[in-house]
Amino acid sequence: MPEIYQVDAFTEVPFHGNPAAVCLLYDARDSEWMQAVAMEMNLSETAFVRPRDDGFELRWFSPATEVNLCGHATLASAHVLWEAGLLPADSEAKFDTRSGRLVARRHAHEIELDFPADPTTPLADDVALHAILGQPVLSLHRGREDWLVELDSEAAVRDCRPDLARIAALPARGLIITARDGGGFDFVSRFFAPGVGVDEDPVTGSAHCTLAGYWAERLGKSSMTAWQASARCGSLGVRLAGDRVFLTGRAVTVMRGELTA
């Protein structure tokens, strides 16, 4: 029977960060079964990991659909492979995904993810976003799948209570809101994706592939620290290197079990 784990990613404290389910497969399962498991787990993402000759196949499902890229569930998957002894601690975790070959590396207690960068392009300011967010909008940009909105302060990001139904109607996977951080981080963010079954994602690795280039240009630095200001919250190291983004974080396993169906 497939083994399944629940891992809190981008944190070292249980019940913080972003929870992901990681299902270890040793034979092929179809997409319908994977989607049913993801609905059952009811987390923002469930990862399905299956061994291949040179690495692992990795697929991610929200409760509503298969997704193209997920950072926290990739970090969780690598953490499980090392913790379960399926990979030596000094070996890279190599994943074949919808977003190409992704690699995770272990550095002491931290995991570094090698992901594709997601450059943004400006969009015309839309006054409807002020109504959706209830906050003044400084700029609006678009990445491959998500929209990115800069607000005028860290407090505006933390206090935002958006209209989720109107976000779901946007022509985007989700909406990132962000601002410069006035404390110990370079920037803060939150991420909303009700259209794919995730009202607010606690800590979103894929969104930081979009945020990396945006803030590198504005802050004049390629290595940054980030805080996602959801209720569960979490921190990431973010480094932009050409067309790649390196995300660093920790993970902790909170549950292990076995699927019987």
- Counted up, domains total 2
- Mean pLDDT level: 95
Could you say which overall geometry the principal axes of the C-alpha atoms support?
Answer: globular
Low-confidence stretches: none
CATH class of the largest domain: Alpha Beta
Strand percent estimate: 35-45%
Question: What sequence of helices (H) and strands (E) makes up the elements?
Answer: EEHEEEHEEEEHEEHHEEEHEEEE
Per CATH, the architecture of the largest domain is Roll
Q: Tell me roughly what share of residues is in helical segments.
A: 10-25%
How would you explain this protein's 3D organization?
- It is built from 6 helices and 18 strands.
- 22% of the residues lie in helices and 43% in strands.
- The chain has an 18-stranded mixed beta sheet that branches.
- The protein has 261 residues and is α+β, with helices and mostly antiparallel strands.
- It folds into 2 domains: 3-116 and 247-258, Roll (Diaminopimelate Epimerase, Chain A, domain 1), CATH 3.10.310; 121-242, Diaminopimelate Epimerase, Chain A, domain 1, CATH 3.10.310.10.
- The longest helix has 15 residues, at 205-219.
- It starts with a strand and ends with a strand.
- The relative contact order is 0.19.
